[in-house]
Amino acid sequence: MKKDLVSILDLTKEEILDIFKLAKKVKKEVKAKKYRNSFNQMTLAMIFEKPSLRTRVSFETGFTQLGGHAIYLGPKDISLGLRESVPDIARNLDRMVDIIMARTFSHKSVEDLAKYSSVPVINGLSDKEHPCQVLADYLTIEEHKGKTSNLKFTFVGAGNNMSHSLMLISSMLGSDFYLACAKGYEPDDQYVQKSKEMAERNGSKVVITNDPVEAVKGADVVYTDVWASMGEESEKEIRAKAFKDYQVNMKLFKNAKPDAIFMHCLPAHRGEEVTDDVIDSKNSVVFDEAENRLHAQKAVMLTLLGVNK
Ligand code: CP
Ligand code: NVA
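^ thats the input. predicted complex w/ norvaline below
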Protein backbone atom coordinates (compact mmCIF):
# COMPACT_ATOMS: atom_id res chain seq x y z
CA MET A 1 0.00 0.00 0.00
CA LYS A 2 1.33 3.45 -0.91
CA LYS A 3 1.63 6.12 1.80
CA ASP A 4 -0.98 8.44 0.22
CA LEU A 5 -4.27 8.41 -1.67
CA VAL A 6 -3.80 11.21 -4.18
CA SER A 7 -5.10 9.33 -7.21
CA ILE A 8 -7.15 6.15 -7.47
CA LEU A 9 -4.01 4.85 -9.24
CA ASP A 10 -2.29 4.82 -5.84
CA LEU A 11 -4.34 1.69 -5.12
CA THR A 12 -4.22 -1.72 -6.78
CA LYS A 13 -7.41 -3.57 -7.67
CA GLU A 14 -6.81 -5.91 -4.69
CA GLU A 15 -6.39 -2.96 -2.33
CA ILE A 16 -9.63 -1.41 -3.59
CA LEU A 17 -11.50 -4.68 -2.98
CA ASP A 18 -9.94 -4.90 0.52
CA ILE A 19 -11.12 -1.35 1.26
CA PHE A 20 -14.67 -2.37 0.26
CA LYS A 21 -14.46 -5.39 2.58
CA LEU A 22 -13.22 -3.30 5.49
CA ALA A 23 -15.75 -0.52 4.76
CA LYS A 24 -18.60 -3.02 4.93
CA LYS A 25 -17.25 -4.37 8.22
CA VAL A 26 -16.85 -0.86 9.65
CA LYS A 27 -20.35 0.04 8.45
CA LYS A 28 -21.86 -3.01 10.19
CA GLU A 29 -19.92 -2.50 13.37
CA VAL A 30 -20.66 1.18 13.93
CA LYS A 31 -23.23 0.19 16.55
CA ALA A 32 -20.96 -2.40 18.18
CA LYS A 33 -18.37 0.40 18.36
CA LYS A 34 -15.57 -2.07 17.64
CA TYR A 35 -13.40 0.57 16.00
CA ARG A 36 -14.21 3.43 18.34
CA ASN A 37 -10.69 3.77 19.77
CA SER A 38 -8.75 3.13 16.56
CA PHE A 39 -7.66 6.75 16.17
CA ASN A 40 -7.23 7.43 19.89
CA GLN A 41 -4.99 10.49 20.45
CA MET A 42 -4.65 11.01 16.69
CA THR A 43 -5.33 14.17 14.71
CA LEU A 44 -6.54 14.64 11.14
CA ALA A 45 -5.85 18.01 9.46
CA MET A 46 -8.44 18.88 6.81
CA ILE A 47 -7.35 21.53 4.29
CA PHE A 48 -10.13 23.08 2.19
CA GLU A 49 -9.53 25.56 -0.64
CA LYS A 50 -13.15 25.08 -1.82
CA PRO A 51 -16.57 24.63 -0.15
CA SER A 52 -17.85 21.21 0.96
CA LEU A 53 -20.73 19.49 2.69
CA ARG A 54 -20.10 15.74 2.33
CA THR A 55 -16.30 15.69 2.35
CA ARG A 56 -15.95 17.83 5.43
CA VAL A 57 -18.73 16.15 7.41
CA SER A 58 -17.79 12.58 6.46
CA PHE A 59 -14.07 13.03 7.24
CA GLU A 60 -14.65 14.94 10.46
CA THR A 61 -17.42 12.63 11.68
CA GLY A 62 -15.56 9.49 10.60
CA PHE A 63 -12.34 10.44 12.36
CA THR A 64 -14.22 11.47 15.51
CA GLN A 65 -16.32 8.27 15.56
CA LEU A 66 -13.10 6.25 15.56
CA GLY A 67 -11.70 8.15 18.54
CA GLY A 68 -9.62 10.87 16.89
CA HIS A 69 -9.77 14.63 16.53
CA ALA A 70 -10.16 16.52 13.23
CA ILE A 71 -9.13 20.13 12.54
CA TYR A 72 -10.79 22.14 9.77
CA LEU A 73 -8.43 24.52 7.95
CA GLY A 74 -10.51 26.63 5.57
CA PRO A 75 -9.36 28.88 2.72
CA LYS A 76 -8.92 31.88 4.99
CA ASP A 77 -7.01 29.97 7.67
CA ILE A 78 -3.87 28.95 5.82
CA SER A 79 -4.17 30.34 2.26
CA LEU A 80 -2.40 27.39 0.66
CA GLY A 81 0.55 28.60 -1.41
CA LEU A 82 -0.10 32.28 -0.69
CA ARG A 83 0.60 32.84 2.98
CA GLU A 84 3.00 29.91 2.96
CA SER A 85 4.30 27.47 0.34
CA VAL A 86 2.70 24.03 -0.04
CA PRO A 87 5.94 22.17 0.86
CA ASP A 88 6.34 24.28 4.01
CA ILE A 89 2.72 23.63 5.03
CA ALA A 90 3.31 19.87 4.57
CA ARG A 91 6.54 20.00 6.63
CA ASN A 92 4.83 21.89 9.46
CA LEU A 93 1.70 19.78 9.60
CA ASP A 94 3.51 16.43 9.62
CA ARG A 95 5.29 17.46 12.85
CA MET A 96 1.90 17.84 14.54
CA VAL A 97 -0.78 15.66 12.98
CA ASP A 98 -1.07 11.99 12.00
CA ILE A 99 -2.86 12.31 8.66
CA ILE A 100 -3.86 15.07 6.21
CA MET A 101 -6.85 15.40 3.89
CA ALA A 102 -6.81 18.17 1.29
CA ARG A 103 -9.32 19.65 -1.15
CA THR A 104 -7.40 21.88 -3.54
CA PHE A 105 -7.85 23.69 -6.82
CA SER A 106 -4.68 22.33 -8.39
CA HIS A 107 -3.95 18.60 -8.37
CA LYS A 108 -0.25 19.49 -8.03
CA SER A 109 -0.95 20.97 -4.59
CA VAL A 110 -2.17 17.58 -3.26
CA GLU A 111 0.74 15.84 -4.99
CA ASP A 112 3.17 18.27 -3.33
CA LEU A 113 1.53 17.88 0.08
CA ALA A 114 2.02 14.12 -0.30
CA LYS A 115 5.59 14.53 -1.53
CA TYR A 116 6.73 16.80 1.29
CA SER A 117 4.75 15.31 4.18
CA SER A 118 5.91 12.24 6.08
CA VAL A 119 2.32 11.41 7.11
CA PRO A 120 -0.39 10.07 4.74
CA VAL A 121 -2.17 12.59 2.51
CA ILE A 122 -5.65 11.94 1.10
CA ASN A 123 -7.06 13.79 -1.91
CA GLY A 124 -10.48 15.17 -0.96
CA LEU A 125 -11.00 16.48 -4.54
CA SER A 126 -8.69 18.38 -6.86
CA ASP A 127 -9.28 19.77 -10.34
CA LYS A 128 -8.24 16.36 -11.74
CA GLU A 129 -9.51 13.64 -9.39
CA HIS A 130 -11.87 12.70 -6.55
CA PRO A 131 -10.68 9.23 -5.43
CA CYS A 132 -12.64 9.06 -2.13
CA GLN A 133 -15.91 9.73 -3.93
CA VAL A 134 -15.40 6.91 -6.42
CA LEU A 135 -14.47 4.42 -3.68
CA ALA A 136 -17.79 5.26 -2.01
CA ASP A 137 -19.52 5.03 -5.40
CA TYR A 138 -18.25 1.56 -6.24
CA LEU A 139 -18.97 0.40 -2.69
CA THR A 140 -22.54 1.56 -3.35
CA ILE A 141 -22.59 -0.23 -6.70
CA GLU A 142 -21.43 -3.44 -5.02
CA GLU A 143 -24.23 -3.14 -2.45
CA HIS A 144 -26.89 -2.60 -5.12
CA LYS A 145 -25.61 -4.79 -7.97
CA GLY A 146 -23.70 -7.44 -6.02
CA LYS A 147 -20.62 -6.88 -8.17
CA THR A 148 -18.22 -4.22 -9.42
CA SER A 149 -17.08 -5.83 -12.68
CA ASN A 150 -18.82 -6.70 -15.96
CA LEU A 151 -21.17 -3.73 -15.68
CA LYS A 152 -21.92 -0.95 -18.14
CA PHE A 153 -21.15 2.28 -16.30
CA THR A 154 -22.20 5.47 -18.09
CA PHE A 155 -21.17 9.00 -17.17
CA VAL A 156 -23.10 11.81 -18.86
CA GLY A 157 -21.46 15.21 -18.46
CA ALA A 158 -18.23 17.15 -18.73
CA GLY A 159 -14.87 15.38 -18.74
CA ASN A 160 -14.02 16.60 -15.24
CA ASN A 161 -12.41 15.37 -12.01
CA MET A 162 -15.28 12.93 -11.32
CA SER A 163 -15.13 11.50 -14.84
CA HIS A 164 -11.37 10.90 -14.52
CA SER A 165 -11.60 8.99 -11.24
CA LEU A 166 -14.68 7.04 -12.34
CA MET A 167 -12.98 6.08 -15.60
CA LEU A 168 -9.88 4.86 -13.76
CA ILE A 169 -11.72 2.81 -11.15
CA SER A 170 -14.19 1.30 -13.66
CA SER A 171 -11.27 0.17 -15.84
CA MET A 172 -9.35 -1.21 -12.87
CA LEU A 173 -12.37 -3.20 -11.70
CA GLY A 174 -13.24 -4.47 -15.18
CA SER A 175 -16.48 -2.63 -15.95
CA ASP A 176 -17.17 -0.90 -19.29
CA PHE A 177 -16.98 2.88 -18.99
CA TYR A 178 -18.96 5.08 -21.38
CA LEU A 179 -18.77 8.87 -21.24
CA ALA A 180 -21.07 11.16 -23.22
CA CYS A 181 -20.13 14.84 -23.32
CA ALA A 182 -20.52 17.92 -25.48
CA LYS A 183 -17.79 18.44 -28.09
CA GLY A 184 -14.78 20.19 -26.61
CA TYR A 185 -15.44 18.97 -23.05
CA GLU A 186 -13.77 15.56 -23.32
CA PRO A 187 -11.76 14.20 -20.38
CA ASP A 188 -7.96 14.66 -20.31
CA ASP A 189 -6.30 12.34 -22.78
CA GLN A 190 -3.80 10.98 -20.27
CA TYR A 191 -6.69 9.62 -18.15
CA VAL A 192 -8.38 8.12 -21.21
CA GLN A 193 -5.17 6.41 -22.37
CA LYS A 194 -4.31 5.06 -18.92
CA SER A 195 -7.88 3.80 -18.45
CA LYS A 196 -7.93 2.15 -21.87
CA GLU A 197 -4.71 0.27 -21.06
CA MET A 198 -6.15 -1.00 -17.76
CA ALA A 199 -9.53 -1.84 -19.31
CA GLU A 200 -7.86 -3.91 -22.00
CA ARG A 201 -6.00 -5.93 -19.35
CA ASN A 202 -9.24 -6.42 -17.39
CA GLY A 203 -11.45 -7.36 -20.33
CA SER A 204 -13.53 -4.18 -20.38
CA LYS A 205 -13.59 -1.01 -22.49
CA VAL A 206 -13.62 2.79 -22.40
CA VAL A 207 -15.81 4.65 -24.89
CA ILE A 208 -15.88 8.45 -25.19
CA THR A 209 -18.76 9.74 -27.32
CA ASN A 210 -20.86 12.82 -27.98
CA ASP A 211 -24.05 10.70 -28.18
CA PRO A 212 -25.85 10.47 -24.79
CA VAL A 213 -28.52 7.99 -25.99
CA GLU A 214 -25.91 5.57 -27.32
CA ALA A 215 -23.96 5.86 -24.07
CA VAL A 216 -26.95 5.27 -21.79
CA LYS A 217 -28.42 2.39 -23.85
CA GLY A 218 -28.42 -0.80 -21.74
CA ALA A 219 -26.42 0.81 -18.89
CA ASP A 220 -26.40 -0.68 -15.38
CA VAL A 221 -25.32 2.63 -13.86
CA VAL A 222 -26.02 6.16 -15.08
CA TYR A 223 -23.94 8.87 -13.39
CA THR A 224 -23.89 12.61 -13.82
CA ASP A 225 -22.26 15.64 -12.19
CA VAL A 226 -22.55 19.42 -12.42
CA TRP A 227 -21.58 20.85 -15.79
CA ALA A 228 -19.44 23.61 -14.24
CA SER A 229 -17.25 22.44 -11.36
CA MET A 230 -16.04 24.54 -8.45
CA GLY A 231 -13.57 27.02 -9.93
CA GLU A 232 -15.37 27.02 -13.32
CA GLU A 233 -18.28 29.23 -12.25
CA SER A 234 -17.49 31.88 -14.90
CA GLU A 235 -18.22 29.23 -17.58
CA LYS A 236 -21.60 28.28 -16.11
CA GLU A 237 -23.72 29.81 -18.88
CA ILE A 238 -21.62 28.72 -21.81
CA ARG A 239 -21.51 25.17 -20.41
CA ALA A 240 -25.28 25.15 -19.80
CA LYS A 241 -25.76 25.86 -23.51
CA ALA A 242 -23.21 23.28 -24.63
CA PHE A 243 -24.75 20.58 -22.39
CA LYS A 244 -28.46 21.24 -22.99
CA ASP A 245 -28.88 17.87 -24.76
CA TYR A 246 -27.00 16.02 -22.02
CA GLN A 247 -29.51 16.42 -19.18
CA VAL A 248 -30.27 13.12 -17.43
CA ASN A 249 -34.07 13.29 -17.58
CA MET A 250 -36.52 10.37 -17.59
CA LYS A 251 -36.52 10.18 -21.40
CA LEU A 252 -32.75 9.66 -21.46
CA PHE A 253 -32.64 7.48 -18.33
CA LYS A 254 -35.24 5.09 -19.80
CA ASN A 255 -32.62 3.96 -22.34
CA ALA A 256 -30.75 2.25 -19.49
CA LYS A 257 -31.64 -1.22 -18.14
CA PRO A 258 -34.95 -1.24 -16.21
CA ASP A 259 -33.05 -1.94 -12.97
CA ALA A 260 -30.32 0.63 -13.66
CA ILE A 261 -29.26 2.81 -10.78
CA PHE A 262 -28.86 6.58 -10.99
CA MET A 263 -25.82 8.10 -9.27
CA HIS A 264 -24.51 11.62 -8.59
CA CYS A 265 -21.64 12.69 -6.35
CA LEU A 266 -23.71 15.72 -5.25
CA PRO A 267 -24.25 18.63 -4.94
CA ALA A 268 -26.84 18.34 -7.73
CA HIS A 269 -28.08 21.28 -9.75
CA ARG A 270 -31.63 20.04 -10.17
CA GLY A 271 -33.18 21.06 -13.48
CA GLU A 272 -29.73 21.33 -15.08
CA GLU A 273 -27.74 18.09 -15.34
CA VAL A 274 -30.54 16.02 -13.75
CA THR A 275 -34.30 16.35 -13.35
CA ASP A 276 -36.24 15.79 -10.11
CA ASP A 277 -38.07 12.73 -11.48
CA VAL A 278 -34.75 10.93 -12.01
CA ILE A 279 -32.87 11.96 -8.87
CA ASP A 280 -35.97 11.32 -6.71
CA SER A 281 -36.88 8.04 -8.46
CA LYS A 282 -36.67 4.59 -6.89
CA ASN A 283 -33.61 3.93 -9.08
CA SER A 284 -31.67 6.77 -7.47
CA VAL A 285 -29.01 5.84 -4.88
CA VAL A 286 -27.49 9.29 -4.40
CA PHE A 287 -27.89 9.38 -0.61
CA ASP A 288 -26.44 5.87 -0.24
CA GLU A 289 -23.38 7.20 -2.06
CA ALA A 290 -23.20 10.15 0.33
CA GLU A 291 -23.44 7.88 3.39
CA ASN A 292 -20.84 5.52 1.97
CA ARG A 293 -18.30 8.36 1.93
CA LEU A 294 -18.22 7.91 5.70
CA HIS A 295 -17.63 4.16 5.62
CA ALA A 296 -15.24 4.06 2.65
CA GLN A 297 -13.07 6.84 4.09
CA LYS A 298 -12.92 5.19 7.51
CA ALA A 299 -11.61 2.09 5.72
CA VAL A 300 -9.09 4.20 3.77
CA MET A 301 -7.83 5.94 6.94
CA LEU A 302 -7.63 2.68 8.93
CA THR A 303 -5.62 1.20 6.05
CA LEU A 304 -3.27 4.17 5.55
CA LEU A 305 -2.66 4.49 9.29
CA GLY A 306 -2.27 0.73 9.60
CA VAL A 307 -4.43 0.43 12.71
CA ASN A 308 -7.05 -2.10 13.82
CA LYS A 309 -7.69 -3.75 10.50
N1 CP B 1 -19.43 14.89 -3.28
C1 CP B 1 -18.72 15.78 -2.58
O1 CP B 1 -17.48 15.74 -2.53
O2 CP B 1 -19.47 16.70 -1.90
P1 CP B 1 -18.92 18.02 -1.20
O3 CP B 1 -18.39 18.92 -2.29
O4 CP B 1 -20.11 18.61 -0.50
O5 CP B 1 -17.83 17.66 -0.24
N1 NVA C 1 -17.07 18.15 -10.34
C1 NVA C 1 -17.56 18.71 -9.09
C2 NVA C 1 -17.61 17.66 -8.04
C3 NVA C 1 -18.12 18.13 -6.70
C4 NVA C 1 -18.10 17.04 -5.66
C5 NVA C 1 -16.64 19.87 -8.68
O1 NVA C 1 -15.42 19.72 -8.77
O2 NVA C 1 -17.17 20.91 -8.28
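The two ends are 14 Å apart (CA to CA).
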